Each structure stands twice: as structure tokens, then as C-alpha cells.
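User: Hey, quick favor. My workstation is busy. Could you predict this chain's structure for me?
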Amino acid sequence: MMISEERCIHCGMCLGPCPAESFVRDPYTV
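Assistant: No problem, here it is.
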């Protein structure tokens, strides 16, 4: 699984997993 720039901006962090609280509209989890 690759972390795209959009995901990076969405999570507000690039070097780690996205917190569940940040999963608002994530195309990877829909």
C-alpha cells in the first residue's frame, strides 16, 4: 500500500499511519 500525497495532506502527516479520527473522507477506506 502506497501513501499518496492526497492521503498525506488528508491525514496531516506523511511518516505514519492515519489516525482513525482523521478518517473523514478517505478514498482508501471507502
